[in-house]
Amino acid sequence: MDVAELRETFTFFDDWEDKYRFVIDLGKELEDIPEGDKVEKNLIRGCQSQVWLTHTVTDDGTIHFKLDSDAFIVRGLISIVLTALNNKRPEDVLAFDIYALFEELELLQHLSQTRGNGLRAMIARIREIAEDLA
C-alpha cells in the first residue's frame, strides 16, 4: 500500500470506530522485528507502550526502517508511518509532512495524549536518523 491508497481507503470510513478497527488491522499485518532487535538501545522514549526502531541504509541511499510495538493500535500507527516514510532517501523523509497526513486521515484528534506523544517521539526519532544521514 502506498500513501495514495491509504488516503483513498480512509475515505470509505464514516466514523472513528471504523478507522480505529482499520488501524488495528494494519497493525496486525505489520512484520515483527527480530527479538534480538528488541533491546534497550532501539527503544523509543516517550511512548506509552514499548516501541522499537531499527534502520538500515541501502546501496542507493534509501533508509529502510523497521518498527515494532507491543500494542496493536501503535503497530497500526507504525504501519501508517512506514507507508509514508519507509524506503525513502533522507531528504524525502524530511520533506514529507507526516503530521499533515495524520490530520488528513483524522487520526490525531482521536489519540490519547500519551499515544500522541508516543507518535511524536517515533516521528522525531525517524527524522533524527534522516537528518544524520542527509
Q: How do the helices and strands line up, and which of them pair or pack?
A:
Blueprint: H1 3-10, H2 16-29, E1 51-57, E2 63-69, H3 72-85, H4 90-95, H5 98-104, H6 113-133
Antiparallel strand pairs: 1-2
Helix pairs in contact: 2-3
Description:
The chain is mainly alpha-helical. It has one domain: Sufe protein. Chain: A, CATH 3.90.1010.10. Helix content is 52%, strand content 10%. It has 6 helices and 2 strands. The protein has helices spanning 3-10, 16-29, 72-85, 90-95, 98-104, 113-133; strands at residues 51-57, 63-69. Strands 1-2 form a two-stranded antiparallel sheet. Strand 1 and strand 2 (63-69) form a beta hairpin. Helix 2 (16-29) packs across helix 3 (72-85). The longest helix has 21 residues, at 113-133. 24% of the residues are buried.
